[in-house]
Amino acid sequence: MLTPDDEAVYLKAATDLARLRPPDLSDFSARTVEIAMLKVFERNGPREDWLNEFRGRIKQASENTVRMESVDRADFPHPHEKSPAASHQRLVDIAAPAVQLLVMGPFDPPFRFVSDNGPERN
């Protein structure tokens, strides 16, 4: 069962991702973030219901200009998170236009931008 703390983590992450920024989750304890991510990520990736809701949060926070779509891990340009729980996504800003590759999962940090030069740490 998701708690208000979990929901706050997801909302903050979605709001930052809607601006094509790595989520700043520093207002939360590392344990709070870890627990929130472990609740929605299973062995082979995020729960589908949560992922769909998270996509909706990004879309809403961006006023329908940013969408998040799944990407095959083979489409990523360089080595990245190897966990089978990792979820490979593409953020697309139709207003800019801009595209940002993203790996997310139950690791630290849970949201990692990936550039053509490899993973970017936040």
Question: Could you explain how this protein is built, in words?
Answer:
Residues 63-88 are annotated as: Disordered. Residues 69-83 have a biased composition (Basic and acidic residues). α1 crosses α2 and α1 packs across α3 (48-61). The strands form two sheets. The chain has a five-stranded antiparallel beta sheet, covered by helices on one side. The chain has helices spanning 4-17, 30-40, 48-61; strands at 41-42, 45-46, 66-70, 87-93, 98-104, 111-115, 118-120. It has 122 residues and is α+β, with helices and mostly antiparallel strands. It has one domain. It has three helices and seven strands, in the order ααββαβββββ.
Topology (elements, then pairings):
Layout: H1 4-17, H2 30-40, E1 41-42, E2 45-46, H3 48-61, E3 66-70, E4 87-93, E5 98-104, E6 111-115, E7 118-120
Antiparallel strand pairs: 1-2, 3-4, 4-5, 5-6, 6-7
Helix pairs in contact: 1-2, 1-3
Compact description:
This protein has one domain. It contains 3 helices and 7 strands, in the order H-H-E-E-H-E-E-E-E-E. The chain has helices spanning 4-17, 30-40, 48-61; strands at 41-42, 45-46, 66-70, 87-93, 98-104, 111-115, 118-120.
